[in-house]
Amino acid sequence: MQTCVGTARKCALVPPNVDISRRPRVVHVVTSDLAVKLMRGQLQYLEHNGFDVTVICSPGKWVEAVGRREGVQIIELPMAREIAPLRDLMSLCRLCRIIRTLRPAVTNVGTPKAGLLAGFAAWMNRVPCRVYTLRGLRFETMNGLKRRLLVCTERLACHFADRVICVSPSLREKAIAFGLTGRDRTVVFGSGSSNGVDASRFASTPERVRQAAELRCKLGIPPQAPVLGFVGRLTRDKGISELVESFLRLGHEFPDLRLLLLGLSEEEDLLDLRTRRCLKAHPRVVLAGEVADTAPYYALMDVLALPSHREGFPNVVLEAYAAGKPVVAARATGIVDAVVNGETGLLFPVGDVAALTSALQMLLSDKASARKFGCAGQELIKREFRQEMIWEALNEEYRRMHLNKGSVTAAGADDGGVRFESGN
User: Fold this and answer.
1) What is the distance between the alpha carbons of residues 132 and 120, in angstroms, rounded to a whole number?
2) How far apart are CA 311 and CA 135, in angstroms?
3) Which SS3 state, helix, strand or coil, does residue 207 take?
C-alpha cells in the first residue's frame, strides 16, 4: 500500500501522526484508478469548497496524474475486483486502519467491492456520514450463484450507507425493484451521471480537426471513410459481439466503413472466439486500445455505438454529444436516461443485431439527420449535464448530511440553489 499526497509524494503507509485538519474530511473509495479518473474536477471542487479530500483506490497508471491534477491525497490500496476471500480480508483490515486514522466526516464508496469492504469499514469505525455511489448493477448480466452473491453484496453496501447516490433515474428504479434499498434513502442528482461532462474538452475546434486528421493518417483510415466508433471495455456485456456482427453486415453497403474501438478486453468477461478472431484479423477494424485523451478519437467518428447490455450512466454518450456526434445505443438501464430516442440518437432492443444494423445504416446514410442529432446532443448537455451541476449537488448533499449529524459544517461552502431528485 502506498500513499500519494497531491504532488505525487509516496510513502509505504499512512503515517500514524497524519495531520487531521479542522476542515471536514471526505474519503472517496473506489476499486480501480479508472473510476478516479472519472471524478475529474469533482475532487478539486470539494477541496475548494471547504472539505479535505482523500481518495483510496487500487494502484494504477492514472493515480499519480489524478493526485497532481486535483491536488488531493491519494492512498493506493490493492482491492480485487472479483471475489477473493483472503485478499478481500486483507483489504478490509487495511481500510479499517486507514479510516480509523483519518477519522473522516464523510465516506463515499463506489463499485460493489469497495462498497462492501469500505462501507463496512466506515460503519465499523462509526463514520458520521456514509454514502454509497451506485454506478451500475453488475448482476444484471450475471446468472446463478455469482448473480446471487452480487445481489447480496449490493444490498450490504446499501445497508452500510446512510445515503445511496444513484447515477441515473432508471438505475435508481432498478435498485429499488431488486430490494437493494428504499426510495427514501436514494438520490439522483439532476438528470443523472456521476460527474457530468466538460463540453470544452470534446468540442470541435481547428486544433481538434487537425488532431483528427493526423489520427486518420496514423491509424490508416482513408480521409473519406466513414467511422463507426465505440469507447469502453471490450467485453460481452458491452455488446461487442453484436457490434461486430452489425459491422460485418454493414460492410456490404459501406465497403470503406471502419470500426474504431477504444478500450481493452477483460479475462473476466471474455468475448467469444469468433468475435476475437474478427477483431484481430479484420482489415477494417481499428483497435486503438486504452488512450489518455479520447477527444480526438470522437472527432474521427461519424456515429458512436453503445450496444451495452447494462450501464449505470454512460459517460461516453455525453462525450459524444459534446463532440457533436449522434449515438446508437441499446435500450438498457442507464442508457435510456442519456439517449433521447429520435432526438439525440436512436435506441434499439438489447441484443437485437438487426435493429442495431438498421439504426446504424440510417445514420451513416442520412448525414443531415446525423448532424441534427449531434447538435441536439450538444444542447442537451448544456441544459442538463454540466459538471458544475453535479459538483454543487454533491457538495450540498455532504453539507446537509453533515449538519443533520450535528457536526461542524464545511467552511466556505455555498448551497448554490441546486435542486435534485430525492426520495424524501
Assistant:
1) 11
2) 8
3) helix
**37 against 237, higher pLDDT:** 237
Note whether 348 and 331 are within 8 A (CB).
Answer: yes
Are 395 and 46 a contacting pair, CB within 8 Å?
yes
Contact criterion met (CB below 8 Å) for 110 and 30 = yes
CA distance 247 to 207: 30
Residues 125-136 have a mean pLDDT of 96
C-alpha 87/C-alpha 59 separation (Å) is: 15
Residue 311 is placed in which grid cell? 450501464
Q: pTM to 2 decimals?
A: 0.88
Cα-to-chain-centroid distance, residue 213: 28
Q: Tell me the HSE value of 364 on the side-chain side, using a 13 A CA sphere.
A: 27
> Looking at residue 66, what is its pLDDT?
81
Q: Extract the C-alpha cell encoding 73.
A: 491525497
Assess whether pLDDT exceeds 80 at residue 84.
no
Strand order in the sheet with 327-330: 285-289, 258-262, 227-231, 303-306, 327-330, 345-348
Q: Report the CATH superfamily, name and number, of domain 199-384.
A: Glycogen Phosphorylase B; (3.40.50.2000)
**Cα distance between residue 392 and residue 336, in whole Å:** 24
Answer whether 213's CB lies under 8 Å from 224's CB: no
Enter the C-alpha cell of residue 114: 469497495
What are the sequence ranges of the domains in the chain? 2-196+386-422, 199-384
pLDDT in tens, 17-46: 444 457 899 999 998 877 888 899 999 999
Assign domain 2-196+386-422 to its CATH architecture: 3-Layer(aba) Sandwich (3.40)
Is 70 exceeded by the pLDDT of residue 254?
Answer: yes
Distance CA 23, CA 239 (A): 45
Q: Do domains 2-196+386-422 and 199-384 have the same CATH topology?
A: yes
